[in-house]
Amino acid sequence: MLKQRWTLWLVLAMIVIGIYSVFYFKLLSDATREGRSVTVILKSLNIRHDFWQAVDKGAEAAAKEMGINLNIEGPLSEGDSDTQFRILEAAIERKPEAIVIAPIIDDRMRKALARASAEGIKVVIINMSPDMKPSPVVVTSDHVEAGRLAAQTSIEEASGQPVIAIISNHANSIVSAERLMGIQRALVGYEESLRGVYYADSSEDRAYEIVKQLLLSEVPFNTFIALNESASQGVARVLKEQNRVDDINLIGFDSTSDEVPLLESRIMKASIVQKPFNMGYLGVKTALKLMDGDPTDPIIYIESNVIAKGNMYTTENQKLLFPFINSK
After folding, report:
1. How many CA atoms lie within 13 A of 35 on its CB side?
2. Burial grade of 178 (CB within 10 A; 0-12, 13-18, 19 or more)
3. Which of 162, 208, 250, 265 has the fewest CB atoms within 10 Å, i.e. the most exposed one?
4. Cα–Cα distance between 37 and 34 in angstroms, integer?
5. Confidence of residue 22 (pLDDT cuts 50, 70, 90)
6. Whole-angstrom Cα distance, residue 175 to residue 181?
7. Are residues 315 and 287 in contact, defined by beta-carbon separation less than 8 angstroms?
């Protein structure tokens, strides 16, 4: 009997010690993280850019959960590399423990990020896989797979006989190049379907004019794949004006408040939608792992979803189309 009581007290004591150890470790961990800093630099802080606003919210959620200080910066214009470079330079001078950045890539950015790494700042790249040596840790959508999904969707929408023009933004865009690679891989066996890649320089008006001219040609296009939001808007304008919505398929990328009505009206047959909230969240979480010296994968891929009118009202896809409403 005495032996049983002794065993019971020993078990209870071990449980109490275990609970206390977990609680103490959490307090110690939280205290250690308090005052630690991560700087996030986005391509744009413009409130009209839903994608980057969702990345922002994901980063904030991770920082709050992990108890670290977060500073989020970026230019207003998505293509303002000069301002983003100055923001990066100033951030390096402040020497945060980590920088999470969606870079507008040019040689100055590569050199600055290499200097940050050399000075002991942990660097995490989000939204793309940059051509850098040594390569930093990357958290990005799988743009090659997203391109494959776009091509597969175009084949299905055209009943196996797509005649495709791709409207891209810039010839030097790494993201668009990866999406194009995925499209081309998926079109093996449909080589004659892809009739050209055209660059609209992130201009809706330029995309509009390109598509308008293409529809005057003798090529019987039945599909346009728009690799970014401005291209999607330009293509949609032409299709509406010329009443070609029913016989020409528009496949887009990403989701904005302007694109949702295009899906609802079937002007855009489908959109390949990323998960920007997840990207911001995992970017900051990965930075903390590096700060703590924990192992992490060199590239962390985030999947994309194909959203069309038929599935846009599911709970999961509503969260992707309306991230701010669903996060309240």
Report:
1. 3
2. buried
3. 265
4. 9
5. very low
6. 10
7. no
